[in-house]
Amino acid sequence: MHTRRTTATPAALAARTVSKPCTRYEHDGTPCGRLTDRRDQWCGTCAGFHRAQRPKPKAAAPRGGQSVVDAPEPLPLEADDAHDPHLNVTRHAIDQYRQRHGGDAQAAETEIRSLLENLITTGDHRHLTRGSWRAWRLQADEGFTLVLSADASFVIGYSTAHRERTYAQVKAAVPSRSRTREKAWVLQLQDDLPIRFPKLVLLRFARDVLGIKFTRSTGERVVAEIFARSQQVLPDPPPSNAGRRRVTDQDGLRWHFHYEPGSHPTVSHLLWEHGRGPEAAKAQAEKK
Ligand SMILES: [Zn+2]
């Protein structure tokens, strides 16, 4: 960072003064098309998804060798440096970004730089050591991480705890598409609770545990009962409030908790252990 620029390049200025159609999508997959002069080509009004559809979940990649994280230490960059052409964003980081959020390479780089700008001023900065390899790790409480080279001249990695929303979307409080598919009345039933239950989980709990149907008239009771029961098995949240936890209760019911920073935990699945639950009991009874 020997020749830091403090004024925007002509190209950056042009990008900010010429209005172009917003390239993003609404929750339901409708293209936006509002005019915007923002650098990231998001109008900021629509939901801002890069893809029309939510991608299918991928199996988690195996984790690499354990890295050692040192004590916090401020990265030697200023917020302006995030947009400095002497700071590079590697193809690898751009690919990681696009795999998660979609969009083209240019949009990915712009958004990574904008995230970096925010992380330089508000993020947690640490040295990372893995054998002889050194790097910087910058992390946002909202669940976004950038890895920079040891000399802080390259952004070499990107990761997030969110399945598809970008940092800008999370900051703008765009809800995740997993939750917005739910019917309004199902969401209203749990508005005051610190945990979320998707409709499929409520249906199963009502049928298998309470022996009733989950409907508008039984909804309140089902939600009260499942909430009480979930509190008995509630695990400690994972580090950074991101990831999954699985707990089996005394009746052999497996609770899958899903955590995402900035959101309430969700019970994503309810499953019976092998040989437990009403189906197994029925099969057992038929054998006799
Ligand atoms: Zn838009």
UniProtKB/TrEMBL annotation:
Keywords: Plasmid. This is Uncharacterized protein.
